[in-house]
Amino acid sequence: MNGRKANFYLMTVKDRAVSAEEINKQKEFIERVRKVNDEHFLASGKRRRAFVLTLGCQQNEADSERLMGMAIEMGYEKTETPEDASLIMVNTCAIREHAEKRALSLVGQYKHIKAKNPDLVIVICGCMVVQEHRVRDIKMRYPYVDILFGPSLIYKLPEHLFKRMNGSNRIFDPDDKEYAVAEGLPVCRENKFRAWVSVMYGCNNFCSYCIVPYVRGRERSRKKEDVIAEFSELVRAGYKDITLLGQNVNSYGKDSGFDYDFADLLSELDKIEGDYVIHFMTSHPKDATRKLIDVMASSKHVARHFHLPMQSGSDRVLKAMNRKYDFEKYIGIRDYIKEKMPDATLTSDIIVGFPGETDEDFEDTLAALRRARFDMIFSFQYSPRENTPAAAMDCQIPKEVKAERFERLLALQNDISYSLNKEFEGRVVRVLCDGPSKNNPDVFSGRTDGGKIVFFDGDERDIGKFLNIKIETGDTFALSGKIER
Ligand code: 5AD
Ligand code: SF4
To answer: Is 339 helix (H, G, I), strand (E, B) or coil?
Structure first.
C-alpha cells in the first residue's frame, strides 16, 4: 500500500527546476564576464560597479538581491549611485500605472549617464517588461536600453550580459512559457538580519483587476528541501526576521502535487532552533485554512501577524473582482485568527474605485473596516491594467470619485489604527531594532513581530537585536517608548 502511494507521489510531483545544464551554462557565463571585468580591473585599477533599482513588491526585492548576487560573482562592486555604474539594472513593477510611469521616467534619466559612459550596460527587467506593448515601447523609445528580460528569467543575466558586452545586438527576452524555478543563484542580501525566502512564484487566481498572473505566470512551488536549506542557512548566519514570500502562499505545493501544504511547511520550519521570527505573505482568503491558523497559534517562531487582503467589503464587488469569497467568509477567517491569537496584528489591502463600485458598495467597505478593525491597511485607487478583464468593464469610476473615496477610507482607517495603537500604551513589546530612524536620527526605530513601527532610545549596539520596549505613546502610524534593559 505504502509502496503504491510512494510511486503515485513520484509520478505526480512536477519538477519545476531550471535544468542543471542550464544553471551550469550560466555559471560558465559568470566566469567569462568575471574574466573580462578582472582584466579591466588590472588595466585600470578600478573595479566596474553595478547598481540595481527595485520598484514594487518584496518578490522584486528578493529578485534584485539575486541580480546583485550574480553581478558580484561576475566581478562587479555594488554601488548605490547609478552615475558611477557600468551595469544598471532596473527591476520594474506593473501592478499600477504609477509604478510603470516611475520605471520609465527613471530609465529616461539613465540616458544621460549612458551618453557619458558608452560602456555602460542598461538592463530592464521585472513585471513591466513582460507586456508586449512595453517591449515595443522600450525597443523604439529607449534605444540605449541594452537588455530586457522577464522576472522568471533573471537567471539568464550572465549569458545576456556576456553576449551584449561582446558585440551582440540588443537583447529582448521578455517571457518564458515554462516558468521554471531557478535554484542555487548567488544572492547579495540587502539587510544583515532581515531576509526574504521565496516559497512559490506566480499566481493562478486571475483577480479581474490584477496583472500579476499575466506577467509572473502560473504558480510553481519550490521544493520543501530547498526552502528548508535556504531558511536554515539564514538562521545559522544569524538572521532574525525571515519572510516567506509567494503571491499566494496558501496555494503552496498544489501546483506540484506535493503531499504537504503551506501549513506543513511552516510547522517544519518552526522546528529549526534559533532566535528568530517567521513572517509570510501574501495569503488569499479563499484558501486561508484553519489548519494554517492553528499552526501559527501553536508555533514558537511564527509572528502573530496575518496579512489578509480583503480588497472590498461589498459582495457584489468581490464577485466582479473574481475573489471567490464573500464578506461573511472573510470575517469568519478574521474572527478565527483573533479567537486563536487575540494579540495578532491584522493587516489588509483595499482597492477603492473598482469599476462599477457604487456609493453603497463603498459604504460596505467602510462598514467592513469598522468590523474587521485592521491594525493597518495598504489602500489603493483602482488602476486599469491593459488586457485585464476589469479594464474592459463598463462604469469605470472617475478619478475624483476614487480620490474622494480613498481619502474617506484613510481617515476611517487612521482612526482605527490610532485607537488600536493607544491600547499599547503601558505594554511591553518585543522589537527587532533596525537602527537610527531615517527621518530623525536622534531616535532609533524597529518593528514589533506584528510589523508595527516603534521609536525608542537605542544605540548602535542594539542594531539587529530583539529588545523589550515599554510603550509610552501609541500614535496612528507608530508606537514609541523606552527600552527595558
Ligand atoms: N489597481 C489597484 N490596486 C491593485 N492591486 C493589484 N492590482 C491593482 C490594480 N490594478 C493591489 C491589490 C493587491 C495589492 C498587492 O495591490 O490590493 O492586493
Ligand atoms: Fe493578483 Fe489576485 Fe494573484 Fe494577488 S491573488 S497576485 S491580487 S491575481
So the answer is: helix
